[in-house]
Amino acid sequence: MKGVIIIKYEKSVAAIGGATVYMANEDGQDYIYSTDKTLGFKGVSTEYGIKAECNHENANVLRRLFPYTAPSRVLQHDKSFGVGDRLGVAAVGHIKVFERYDAYPVLVQQSIRELNLTHRTYEDVLDCVTYTVFKTGYKKGFGADGDHLKTEQDIQYALGLGFTMITLDCSEHIITDIDADFAVPQATLQRYADKFFEIEDGEVLSFDKEQLKQISMIYDDAIAFAADIYHKYIKGSNADFEISIDETATTTTPLQHFYVANELKQKGVNFATMAPRFCGEFQKGIDYIGDIAQFEKEIDIHAKIARYFGYKISVHSGSDKFSIFPMVAKATKGVFHVKTAGTNWLEAMRVVAAKDAELYRQIHKYALKMFTEAKKYYHVTTDITKIPDIDSLKDEDLPKLFDQNESRQLIHITYGFILDEYRGQLYTLWGTHHVEYEKALLTHIGKHLDLLGVPLISLK
After folding, report:
1. Residue 323 lies in a domain
2. What is the pLDDT of residue 460?
3. Which pLDDT score, from 0 to 100, does residue 378 have?
4. How far apart (Å, rounded) are the C-alpha atoms in residues 54 and 235?
5. Which of helix, strand or coil describes residue 399?
6. Cα 178 vs. chain centroid, distance in angstroms?
7. 12 lies in a domain?
């Protein structure tokens, strides 16, 4: 009879009262073990205590017993960084990154769109991180972000699970149709018309009546929406509030940014971060596209506005925006929040290309077939005719596809379709090659943090 193979995760061992709780892998499956049967874990009674499955109910017990396995509010630290893990297998690599760098991670970061495309739930996303945090003994702290939420129902869902950050997507309330008959409220005219606002270092902003009319018309509904959400759900909760006005086709000017922030403050809204729509293109999984000099000038003013009101700038679609990271660090004086997501998925797929060429070739061809459908979910300008014919490439050249913008975006935006078609094969491969994936994340996310000027933690 084959013996049972049990591998204990030594870093997980934790004492509570007179009991010991730890995690171990038994024949490929992770379990929670407790020497005390009364702590609340539901599982199989043994002569040594209890063996419990890593499910949602037991994750709730773990978070109650060991608070470091539950999310906390990390936006209050100077440097915070979101690493959306669409797969539930990246957290070990992410933890290794933030054990090394002096920034605080949001390890739980998913939008409803991502949940739908990956067929996951917020319970699953949170629990995967909780168990990984416990397994690795990581005690620095991490955030949980209900990312780009648009509805009250979704906000209640995330908060009910203990998420510590809500990113409110205001895009559906930002008005883009010009109304010549729009009348600016009298109170708005009194606050802004022909007034001057010195924000920092002699930088002065002023509004004429025509500018004010346009800005008020575009943003007043979004401001009212954000204020309503804040006072209903965020105020008094244990969650930081991020205002997202970046999911629009037009750039957020410094005047617009100032107006939105000031109006929110007038309405008693306390928010930790704001994500403007910066100039240029912040497309998924590739570097910044646009005028670098213009971005540098405008990010400086945006950062001054944020400091004037007392919150942090948030950079969305921050994956791989290497050319502008030093400017972000300089302008914000090292106080920022940056979000990444797809870059973690792309590194996972790079591992596939390196370790199973035949599987990757199948996936690549399938992604080409699904690309047009996937473009309904994301704004990209990918020219797939620039992607080399995969049949002309040698196996050893396949990982190099992930150094090209077009092929990166091809794989990036088709992730939901790829997972639907190849889920079992992919997770088996990632399980076998988890060490390679962890190393890839340490290198790739580490590059982001290096360019953002995040210092390494001194190892004593």
Report:
1. no
2. 44
3. 87
4. 33
5. helix
6. 33
7. yes
Query: What does pTM read for this prediction?
Result: 0.96
Residue among 137, 126, 74 at smallest CA distance from 105: 74
Question: What tokens appear for 293 in the block?
Answer: 């000099």
Active site residue 242: yes
Question: Checking phi first, is residue 383 left (phi over 0); if not, alpha (psi -120 to 50) or beta?
Answer: beta
How many residues make up the chain in this entry? 460
In the chain, which residues have pLDDT < 50?
A: 1, 460
In a domain, 13, yes or no: yes
The confidence score (pLDDT) of residue 279 equals 97
Task: Tell me what pLDDT residue 178 has.
Answer: 81
Q: How many domains does the chain have?
A: 1
Question: Of 114, 127, 145, 147, which one is the catalytic site residue?
Answer: 147
C-alpha–C-alpha distance, residues 328 and 342, integer Å: 20
As to burial, measured by CB atoms within 10 angstroms (0-12 exposed, 13-18 middle, 19+ buried), residue 155 is buried
127, 220, 242, 438: the catalytic one is 242
Q: Could you give the CA distance from residue 309 to residue 270 in angstroms, rounded to a whole number?
A: 10
CA angle 9, 13, 16 (to 5 degrees): 155
User: 357-374 vs 405-413: helix axis angle to the nearest 10?
Assistant: 80
Per residue in 200-210, pLDDT tens? Answer: 999 999 999 99
195/215 Cα distance (integer angstroms): 15
Euclidean distance between CA atoms 26 and 52, whole angstroms: 12
Query: Using CA atoms, how far apart are residues 334 and 312, in angstroms rounded to an integer?
Result: 10
Range of the domain at 33: 6-55
Residue 127 annotated as catalytic: no
- Residue 307 falls inside a structural domain: no
User: HEC string of 189-251?
Assistant: HHHHECCEEEEECCEEEEECHHHHHHHHHHHHHHHHHHHHHHHHHHCCCCCEEEEECCCCCCC
Q: What is the pLDDT of residue 459?
A: 58
Which candidate, 345, 352, 312, 420, places its Cα nearest to that of 94? 345
- 452 vs 454: CA distance, rounded Å: 6
Residue 167, token pair as written in the block: 């990113």
| DSSP, residue by residue, 323-352 | TTHHHHHHHTTT-EEEEE-HHHHHHHHHHH
User: Distance between CA atoms of 391 and 210, rounded to whole angstroms?
Assistant: 58
- Strand, helix or coil for residue 353: helix
Per-residue pLDDT, 379: 84
pLDDT digits (tens, 9 = 90+) for 210-245: 999 999 999 999 999 999 999 999 999 999 999 999
Q: Which two tokens stand for residue 331?
A: 């302008």
